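Need a sequence for this fold. Nothing fancy.
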């Protein structure tokens, strides 16, 4: 009887915890510039306008302005600390530096085929990250926010041009008269985020900003997003415990797994027709084969063409007249290049030209003497 009562109480406590968790969702706060979006056009425009403003108003060189950013976490925070700017000066700074031409935001526009719906957010084929944001925004388990050193006017334009409903975010925290123009260089900036039983999760591209935020009383969990593979998409998956923090996408391992599936799924009728066509090329094309491989990956198709049983070289096809093979490889992922080079070398290829974006290889095989 006692065990049953204890089990019943545990069930009640568990249910209350679940209800409490649903009523107090986990706070996820996302930085705006270079985190919610990444496009050099906007960043360049902001920096150029900031440099001009700092020189015109305070006679500071671009180098001096950048040094303030490096030292204080943001240029405006550095200006405030070193020059004791008044609220009216701060307001003037934001109104001038962030008065970007509307065309500047054009790179943020989602594809024409993507539109948000009120129920599911972005519908296919919307960018996966925007679909994920939409799913989190509609989930009772999470509360999405934006925390930015940029003014509200700029952040609102970014959100609008990305095609994200402003209702997706429960709040947008920015420097303003109401918070004394605090920036993320002060831990108190995050006081505006709602309290929750679980620590808030802060996603930002600035490591020093995240270090400052770590001292906030809420003990936030921080996730850095600065360069691939550390993308916003990955950060959101980490924030929701959808992937293990130790997981790192390895393009080489991915392609090796994919090649196994591709090999099993290849249509032999189509391949044999290609092979037959190559073997029946008229002179002089039948002796020197040129192959251009766009998106060569880990050389899956080249391996098949040079296979000792299914390939087109003489060792696989005695009727083959091919005496040399010239291979032009094109691969946009530079991380694969070392493995590609190593594989081609082990396959007997020698490098002819390795000028990017193309890498050229050539293999000369020993001609098979004609049968008497």
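Here you go.
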């Amino acid at each position: 009887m006692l065990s049953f009562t204890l089990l019943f109480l545990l069930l009640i406590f568990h249910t209350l915890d679940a209800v409490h968790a649903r009523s107090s969702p986990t706070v996820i706060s996302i930085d705006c510039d270079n985190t919610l979006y990444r496009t050099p056009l906007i960043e360049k425009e902001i920096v150029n306008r900031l440099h001009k403003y700092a020189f015109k108003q305070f006679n500071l060189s671009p180098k001096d302005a950048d040094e303030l950013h490096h030292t204080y976490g943001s240029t405006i925070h550095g200006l405030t600390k070193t020059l004791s700017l008044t609220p009216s000066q701060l307001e003037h700074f934001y109104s001038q530096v962030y008065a970007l031409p509307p065309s500047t935001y054009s790179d943020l526009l989602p594809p024409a085929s993507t539109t948000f719906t009120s129920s599911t957010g972005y519908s296919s084929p919307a960018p996966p990250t925007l679909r994920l944001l939409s799913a989190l925004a509609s989930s009772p388990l999470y509360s999405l926010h934006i925390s930015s050193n940029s003014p509200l006017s700029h952040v609102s334009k970014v959100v609008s041009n990305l095609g994200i409903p402003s209702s997706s975010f429960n709040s947008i925290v920015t420097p303003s008269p109401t918070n004394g123009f605090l920036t993320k260089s002060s831990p108190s900036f995050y006081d505006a985020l709602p309290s929750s039983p679980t620590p808030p999760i802060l996603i930002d591209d600035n490591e020093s900003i995240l270090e400052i935020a770590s001292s906030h009383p809420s003990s936030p969990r921080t996730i850095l997003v600065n360069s691939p593979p550390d993308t916003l998409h990955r950060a959101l998956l980490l924030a929701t415990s959808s992937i293990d923090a130790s997981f790192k996408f390895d393009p080489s391992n991915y392609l090796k797994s994919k090649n196994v599936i591709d090999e099993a799924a290849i249509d032999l009728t189509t391949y044999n027709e290609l092979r037959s066509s190559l073997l029946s090329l008229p002179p002089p094309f039948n002796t020197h084969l040129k192959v251009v491989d766009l998106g060569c990956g880990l050389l899956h198709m080249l391996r098949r063409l040079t296979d000792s049983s299914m390939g087109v070289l003489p060792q696989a096809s005695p009727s083959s007249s091919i005496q040399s093979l010239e291979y032009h490889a094109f691969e946009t992922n530079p991380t694969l290049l070392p493995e590609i080079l190593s594989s081609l070398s082990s396959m007997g290829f020698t490098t002819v030209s390795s000028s990017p974006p193309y890498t050229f290889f050539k293999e000369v095989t020993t001609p098979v003497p004609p049968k008497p």
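For context: The CA atoms of residues 175 and 181 lie 4 Å apart.
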